[in-house]
C-alpha cells in the first residue's frame, strides 16, 4: 500500500442496536505506523455510522423497506446482552417481544395462529 492509495475497512457481524439512535462516537478508527501500535499515524472518530439494512429488532427485512421485517433476532444471537427473543408477526411484518393472544411462537420464532377457539396455545 502506497501513499494516497485508498484503504477499505470492513466490519462484520454488527448487530442492530436496541434503538435506531447511535451515539456520535460509536466507532473510532486509528491507523498506526507499525504493528506495535507505537506511533499514531491518523484517526477518525466523528461521523462514523454503520449502515444498518434493517431497523431493530429486525434481523432481516425487505430490501426496499427496512421497517418490514422478515426475520427477528433470537436471544442466542444477541449473546452477552440483556435482550430477549423477538418473534415475527407475519401479518404486521414486525418483531414482537411476545406473540399476541391467539398466536404461539414456533421453532423459527414466528408467531403462528392457534387452533380455532383458543385464546392461547403452544407449539408443544
Write up this protein:
By secondary structure, this protein is mainly β. Helices cover 0% and strands 27% of the residues. The chain has a domain at 52-113. A hairpin with a 4-residue loop joins strand 5 (87-89) and strand 6 (94-96). The protein is elongated. The mean pLDDT is 76.
Strand order of the largest sheet: 1-2
Judged by helices, strands and strand pairing, the structural class is mainly beta
Reported for the largest beta sheet, the result is: 2 strands, antiparallel
Helix content: under 10%
Q: β content, as a range?
A: 25-35%
Number of strands: 8
Low-confidence stretches: none
Shape: elongated
Number of helices in the DSSP assignment: 0
How far the N terminus sits from the C terminus, by CA atoms, comes to 58 Å
Order of helix and strand elements from N to C terminus? EEEEEEEE
List the helices and strands and how they pair.
Blueprint: E1 29-32, E2 40-44, E3 58-62, E4 65-72, E5 87-89, E6 94-96, E7 103-105, E8 111-113
Antiparallel strand pairs: 1-2, 3-4, 5-6, 7-8
